[in-house]
Request: fold
Amino acid sequence: MASTREHEQAQYQDRERQVPFTTGLESGYASGSSSPGKAPVIPEISFTKAHLKFLNQQLQQLEPEEILRWCLISLPGLFQTTAFGLTGLVTLDMLSRLSVGTSAPTDLIFLDTLHHFSETHTLMERVKQRYPLLTLHIYTPHGVHNASEFVHQHGERLWESNEDLYDWVAKVEPAQRAYAELQVKAVLTGRRRSQGGKRGDLDILEVDEAGLVKVNPLANWSFAQVQAYVREHDVPYNELLDRGYKSVGDWHSTKPIQEGADERSGRWAGRAKTECGIHHPKSKFARFLREHEETKAGPDQD
Reply:
């Protein structure tokens, strides 16, 4: 068990070093390169604060399809991250229409925590059938492939005994591993302002402290607009939405909600938590892992 924790901490520190973000850089792309027999290196993307502000002012005026079109021509190393929520499915469908006659849709990254509802996995198979050109990358927690292996390695109900460690093991570390292995420079998310909480003042375009570009193409849309698109275009969706759910995550932290309640009120109900971890600053988890290791080591001995 100790060696597993040490491996996780070392991986985190490696990711911290791999993707530096320097706010002093001019906006643009650092040079990519390729060598014979090797995959091309995707150029780094950087924005000054002024450029980022300007882009957000312009993107704010566009419809989601126009934002996605801009992303496709402007952002190298672009992927979509999703847990097959309704907004992400709309984004996927829009991308599939933009890609008709040109190229395959943007690759999708699914972080399988091994604690998703069976209905989510059923939906994933329906999505693969509906969009046959889609390339789906599935990442599970390090060293495990099913819920039983997860319990054997991390103990029962880790999300209750150590919530931050659960977020790191099930979501943050797999996300960082995916970004490193796939050379991800920019991601499309399903976050919207109308979802409330920390998302209420969401920008269309963000850059996190590691330099990862995050695009929220449907940030301006309401749940009703998303739902209307799904109905109009017959987009496959999670059948749990017909049973009172609006935002679906892990089975242990998701509940159906009352009509008129905040969209994400069924996530971590009764707790102050509103985000799963992958949208928190990386420094939070750096501090957490350091404190976790210090706790395991115990007090210094003179």
